[in-house]
């Protein structure tokens, strides 16, 4: 099928192959304009005579060609947009992309507004900030999240968000390392690894990249991988509380993980972006585990705590004693990357971050987190009452619902078509995600209640 | 190279202080060999360190910073009020916004296209808003283009082009003698060739980095020169990455965008920034234009891959910064910013005059906020040290921008007017 034919056919519910890069052959000069987040995918047809359009002689990065489709979340957005076109009067409810919806508490926004105004004054103007972040913010992050854990404030690198940090870490590690991820996992780990050239080819039958170690996390193993059967990888990505399963690893499990990393000389990249959603006794930082400082980097974010998804602020901890095999400190190279490939998080976002970590700010963040957690309870109860096996939710803003034996994109499409609710298909997070749907709890209360009402109607 | 498993505590006067550790303390993860190829720290933090050392040595000296090109003048009210307004809206149900489009707010993308590329055929959807040119250089170099493409840079040039290339494994080994990396083509730019490379003797590379108005030399390429560059790229099937971060400083008739040159859309990406235009060095906002017409050798549109990178490795510029950006491009905002840019240009003029009056050849300054001063036969680090030691003025040694920078010092025109005048006076005293 030519690209034009593919694009004019109805969007299939199976994997978004039509948007995959493999549908672009070397003869095709039809250019599709990248879709806007809320817009539609526009196709620009190129007339016959322009088939001889000029090309440079620069080879496309072969790693980009290995990516199977667009990044997951813009794909979800495209589906939503197409659905809206089809049903312009439908009240579509988004429980797909984990996008925060509640206003940012005023104590935080006033601090940002104040900083903005100060930039218009002689005394208050500041230009370039330290690439690693403002000292006061680094200190506040340290004392708020790592109190008593012997993490120093200068181990902390402030950034414009965890997703960006993941790529910077990949640039740091380079192409010649191997990696392991949980399966399912947040897609940026795998995708950034592919882009860096770490992964080898995609194997269609297994739906996996050759050189990535996929550590299955399913209900059968309590969403913690059986480490005894996991081969050594240089880098282990581990997210807890987990996106998408919502599982929070126990102290015991994380102790195993740290031991495993130590034994294999691996580096853990621990994603703790949802730590504040932990209700139970689970560790909130990998550094609560003895020995972790010698094996782990931790990355986190203000996105889901403070509604900073658009404001952009996060951080990464790289302990001084984390060393490459030749003894060279990882932090020294990360610092070099941060100074060369980055120029610091926005000073206004950082002012907001500091206010987030004031006593009033912390309380305000906990209130918003509590609100989303209540949404999660409502969603969990709904699916539970319908007889589904429901996971996650207690320690994360995601509910992981099992649809045994079903293709998750088909379930996603069915839910969208019949209830106008957007969710995320589990296979978007990895092959072991198939048969599951991730329902995100970020939304206005009335929308969450309405969505649950619709789920009840569909699955009663 | 460190003995296996030891801890580097730091360096003192170039000597590494290493402590041996039990071998169980190291991970088994090999260090990225490309990081080892970097010769020193990134240039600007190194200058920052020298500044600090100097301040410690002379705590009472009034240091004047004309080194790192950091803006100093307040941002006009109309812009910061727009940012404050946006921020307050985030506290309301109606005004709250979460994730923005990774490519940037469409209104801003179109405003950028309309303001800077009017009549040049650049559309809003070809504009990718970012958190700044330095970050975009990294995204282009390290993520988009990968390690298997060759590159050329001007010599001297903004160090991020080379450093990012080294980190992604494209540069080959560093040669101490020449101060160059084996696999990078250095296009010398000096007074002898009117600061434009002799393209007839330049080898083909896949990527050509070109900055105009230039950092550090301040030279703005002419229309004719840029046409040559575009033709050269076209003939060789190369891709130009054109850095126009200082376009707002152009005084004369020199092009402000590569897309003013016919044919450029098929061969060039343009990066730019609000940093030096709007004082957004801390606020963080920039953009990259990737034309639809720009295709890889297999016909695949570069824009499609760049979009994928931006969606996967980035999450958009701060919505607050973008609100500020939009205000910058309003009629009133743009006018207010022109006044600030003129102020810095006035500074550059004062510095050019100061050096010229001392009989020194001072280049640049006319179309850029940088003055490129020639100290023939001298080591630029020595000149840097002498100026710092004797006048407490921070500059940047030309050598930091590449071997072609040797014998020059870059003096930045960013500063309060009275400091620039003071600096001018001190320099005249030193070199009279």
From TrEMBL, chain A:
Region Disordered, annotated ranges: 1-21
Source taxon at top rank: Eukaryota
InterPro entries assigned to the protein according to its UniProt record, in alphabetical order: Aminotransferase_I/II_large (IPR004839), DapL/ALD1 (IPR019942), PyrdxlP-dep_Trfase (IPR015424), PyrdxlP-dep_Trfase_major (IPR015421), PyrdxlP-dep_Trfase_small (IPR015422)
Keyword Transferase attached: yes
GO molecular function: pyridoxal phosphate binding; transaminase activity
Record SUPFAM superfamilies: PLP-dependent transferases (SSF53383)
Biological processes, Gene Ontology terms: systemic acquired resistance, salicylic acid mediated signaling pathway
Domain Aminotransferase class I/classII large, first and last residues per copy: 91-455
Pfam families: Aminotran_1_2
UniProt key word Transferase: yes
Cofactor(s) essential for the protein: pyridoxal 5'-phosphate
Keyword vocabulary terms for this entry: Aminotransferase, Pyridoxal phosphate, Transferase
UniProt xrefs under NCBIfam families: DAPAT_plant (TIGR03542)
Family designation: Belongs to the class-I pyridoxal-phosphate-dependent aminotransferase family. LL-diaminopimelate aminotransferase subfamily.
Entry protein name: Aminotransferase class I/classII large domain-containing protein
Species for this entry: Lithocarpus litseifolius
Lineage of origin: Eukaryota, Viridiplantae, Streptophyta, Embryophyta, Tracheophyta
From TrEMBL, chain B:
Domain Aminotransferase class I/classII large: 63-412
CDD domains registered for this protein in UniProt: AAT_like
Superkingdom assignment: Eukaryota
MF terms (GO), sorted A to Z: pyridoxal phosphate binding; transaminase activity
GO biological process: systemic acquired resistance, salicylic acid mediated signaling pathway
Signal peptide stretch: 1-17
Keywords in alphabetical order: Aminotransferase, Pyridoxal phosphate, Signal, Transferase
Family: Belongs to the class-I pyridoxal-phosphate-dependent aminotransferase family. LL-diaminopimelate aminotransferase subfamily.
Protein name as annotated: Aminotransferase class I/classII large domain-containing protein
Organism: Lithocarpus litseifolius
């Amino acid at each position: 099928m030519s690209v034009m034919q593919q694009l004019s056919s109805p969007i299939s519910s199976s994997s978004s192959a039509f948007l995959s890069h493999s549908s672009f052959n070397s003869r095709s000069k039809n250019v599709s304009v990248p879709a806007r987040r809320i817009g539609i995918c526009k196709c620009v047809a190129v007339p016959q005579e322009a088939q001889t359009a000029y090309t440079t002689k620069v080879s496309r990065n072969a790693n980009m060609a290995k990516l199977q489709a667009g990044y997951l979340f813009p794909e979800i957005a495209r589906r939503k947009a197409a659905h809206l076109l089809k049903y312009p009067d439908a009240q579509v409810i988004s429980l797909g992309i984990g996008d925060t919806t509640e206003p940012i508490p005023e104590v935080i926004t006033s601090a940002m507004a104040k900083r903005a105004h100060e930039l218009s004054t002689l005394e208050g103007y500041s230009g370039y900030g330290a690439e690693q972040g403002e000292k006061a913010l680094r200190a506040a992050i340290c004392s708020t999240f790592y109190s008593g854990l012997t993490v120093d404030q200068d181990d902390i690198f402030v950034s414009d968000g965890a997703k960006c940090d993941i790529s910077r870490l990949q640039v740091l590690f380079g192409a010649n390392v191997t990696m392991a991820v949980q399966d399912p996992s947040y897609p940026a780990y795998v995708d950034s690894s592919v882009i860096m050239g770490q992964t080898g080819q995609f194997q269609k039958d297994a739906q996996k990249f050759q050189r990535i170690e996929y550590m299955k996390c399913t209900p059968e193993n309590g969403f913690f991988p059986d480490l005894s059967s996991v081969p050594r990888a240089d880098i282990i990505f581990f997210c807890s509380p987990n996106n998408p399963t919502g599982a929070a690893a126990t102290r015991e499990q994380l102790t195993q993980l740290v031991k495993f990393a130590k034994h294999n000389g691996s580096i853990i990249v621990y994603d703790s972006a949802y730590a504040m959603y932990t209700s139970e006794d689970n560790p909130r930082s990998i550094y609560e585990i003895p020995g972790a400082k010698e094996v782990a980097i931790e990355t986190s974010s203000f996105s889901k705590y403070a509604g900073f998804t658009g404001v952009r602020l996060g951080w990464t901890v790289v302990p001084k004693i984390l060393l490459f095999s030749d003894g060279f400190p990882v932090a020294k190279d990360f610092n070099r990357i941060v100074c060369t490939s980055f120029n610091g998080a926005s000073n206004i976002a950082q002012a907001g971050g500091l206010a987030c970590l004031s006593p009033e700010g912390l309380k305000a963040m906990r209130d918003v987190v509590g609100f989303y957690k209540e949404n999660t309870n409502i969603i969990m109860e709904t699916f539970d009452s319908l007889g589904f096996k429901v996971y996650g939710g207690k320690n994360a803003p995601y509910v992981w619902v099992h649809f045994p034996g079903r293709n998750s994109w088909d379930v996603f499409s069915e839910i969208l078509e019949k209830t106008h609710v957007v969710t995320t298909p589990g296979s978007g997070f990895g092959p072991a995600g198939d048969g599951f749907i991730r329902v995100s709890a970020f939304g206005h209360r009335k929308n969450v209640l309405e969505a649950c009402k619709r789920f009840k109607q569909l699955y009663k | 190279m460190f003995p296996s498993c030891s801890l580097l505590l730091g360096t003192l006067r170039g000597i590494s202080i290493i402590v041996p550790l039990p071998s169980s303390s190291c991970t088994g993860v090999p260090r990225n060999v490309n990081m080892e190829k970097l010769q020193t720290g990134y240039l600007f933090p190194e200058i920052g360190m020298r500044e600090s050392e100097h301040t410690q040595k002379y705590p009472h000296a009034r240091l004047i910073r004309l080194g790192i090109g950091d803006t100093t003048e307040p941002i006009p009210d109309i812009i910061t009020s727009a940012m404050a307004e946006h921020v307050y809206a985030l506290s309301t149900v109606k005004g709250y916004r979460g994730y923005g489009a990774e490519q940037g707010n469409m209104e801003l993308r179109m405003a950028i296209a309309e303001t800077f590329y009017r009549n040049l055929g650049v559309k809003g959807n070809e504009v990718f808003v970012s958190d700044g040119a330095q970050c975009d250089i990294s995204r282009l170099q390290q993520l988009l283009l990968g390690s298997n493409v060759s590159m050329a840079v001007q010599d001297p040039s903004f160090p991020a082009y080379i450093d990012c290339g080294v980190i992604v494994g494209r540069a080959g080994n560093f040669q101490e003698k020449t101060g160059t990396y084996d696999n990078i083509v250095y296009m010398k730019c000096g007074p002898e060739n009117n600061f434009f490379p002799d393209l007839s003797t330049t080898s083909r590379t896949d990527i050509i980095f070109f900055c105009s108005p230039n950092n550090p030399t301040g030279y703005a390429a002419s229309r004719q020169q840029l046409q040559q560059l575009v033709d050269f790229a076209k003939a060789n099937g190369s891709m130009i990455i054109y850095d126009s971060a200082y376009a707002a400083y152009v005084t004369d008739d020199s092009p402000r965008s590569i897309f003013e040159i016919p044919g450029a859309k098929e061969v060039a990406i343009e990066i730019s920034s609000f940093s030096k235009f709007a004082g957004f060095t801390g606020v963080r906002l920039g953009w990259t234009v990737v034309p639809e017409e720009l295709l890889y050798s297999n016909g695949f549109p570069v824009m499609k891959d760049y979009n994928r990178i931006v969606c996967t490795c980035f999450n958009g510029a701060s919505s607050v910064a973008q609100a500020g950006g939009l205000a910058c491009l309003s009629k009133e905002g743009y006018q207010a910013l022109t006044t600030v840019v003129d102020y810095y240009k006035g500074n550059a003029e004062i510095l050019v005059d100061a050096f010229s009056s001392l009989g020194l050849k001072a280049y640049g300054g006319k179309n850029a906020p940088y003055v490129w001063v020639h100290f023939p036969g001298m080591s630029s680090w020595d000149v840097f040290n002498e100026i710092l030691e004797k006048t407490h003025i921070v500059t940047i040694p030309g050598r930091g921008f590449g071997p072609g920078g040797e014998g020059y010092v870059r003096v930045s025109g960013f500063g309060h007017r009275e400091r620039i005048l003071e600096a001018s006076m001190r320099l005249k005293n030193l070199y009279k």
